[in-house]
Amino acid sequence: MDFLVLTKVGGPFGVIVQVLGWIMEILFAFTNLFGVVNIGLSIILFTLVTKLILFPLSLNQQKSSKIQAVIQPEIQAIQKKYKGKNDNESMMKMNVETRAVYEKYGASMTGGCLPLLIQFPIMIGLYQVIYKIPAYVGMVRNYFEVIMDKMPANFASNEVFMKLAQSQALGSADFSDADKVVDLLYKLTRPQWAELAGVFPEITTAVTSAGENAIEAVNRMQNFLGINVAYTPMNVITGFFGGNEEFGIMACVMAFIIPILSGLSQWYCTKLITVNQPQQADDAPGSNLMKSMNVTMPIMSLVFCFTLPLVIGIYWVVSSLFQMVQQIYMNYYMAKVDIDELIRKNVEKANKKRAKKGLAPNKPTTIAQAMKAMQEAEAKEKAELEKKTAKTKKLVEDSTAYYNQNAKPGSLASKVNMVQKYNEKHEKH
Questions:
Q1: Distance between CA atoms of 194 and 201, rounded to whole angstroms?
Q2: Which of 92, 327, 402, 409 is most buried when burial is the number of CB atoms within 10 A of its CB?
Q3: Is the alpha carbon torsion for 404, 407, 413, 416 positive or negative?
Q4: Which stretches within 168-248 are classed as H helix?
Q5: Using one digit for the tens of pLDDT, what is the confidence trace for 284-294?
């Protein structure tokens, strides 16, 4: 199960993760100035810092959503116009008209996805750093290295050591690699540390640079709200009901609360975010999928949180709580934004790009102008439909009158006359 190990991510993506790792290390050093080295506290500070870094992208995403809310009625009108027309010509016309609407507002058909695409690798990087703290934070790794130095050269052949490795899904790891040893030590519970010390008593003499017992320092560093952040909530719950003295009632309560808070806070965040997003029609493509995802994703978060290390659950909860505060502020800010001014700036920005391509500039469109254009288009469509209906009605009336000449409508004579008139009419042709 390679996804469990704490070794660093390589390749181009590894650069992003490494930068985030430096931020985490700086935060560890900062809290250490006050005599506090705690993974849970550092995760909270790390979450707040990264959320502030991503705030401009989030705000741009909200502005894009506000413009999309204005564009959406026109897009839906175009979709309604071409509904059921699947021929190539109709599809091309629909695409051209859709593109023209976006250009009118200085928006891109894919522009709303850009902030999300930028945030995606950063968010993945955040999980890598949080899940693999010893790989990116030297101060944390040092705690484990002083313990490793006290272990005998043939430690990997020890039966107890291998049993501990298998309990953490690392039984097939190559422990000649120091990173793999750190992977295992980071996941050990307090009883497992005692078990390891029973076969390697030398590790109990390992001390940190501050002169503190290294094993005690590790347990203290990983303890947050009475729980080791390397444990999963399920570890704590099963341990408590299994009679493990390490887990008290409060630890068990927290093991339930963190996943539940994770699910609820993410659900409420989604609700706050959708306030500024364009409302789609029920029959719009992907509409039902988005609605179901807004419910299923928080539920999945709750379920996964029980089986992932508590450090992930802490991150999800803190991230969602901080996102709530940000989103409430952004909703307040966006409610006061002049949409016409936002569109004007958007069009100016788009026109600069058009000028570089040698294209003529678009004129900014106000909401009033857009509404008037839509009303005129609807009135024109309605007038054309009424004209067509009136023309059809007159043709029917003229035809009926022609066939009913010199006879009472509905009589046998009128029917005979109708057949005669029909034959005369077609003989002339």
A1: 9
A2: 327
A3: negative
A4: 178-187, 190-199, 214-222, 233-241
A5: 554 566 667 77
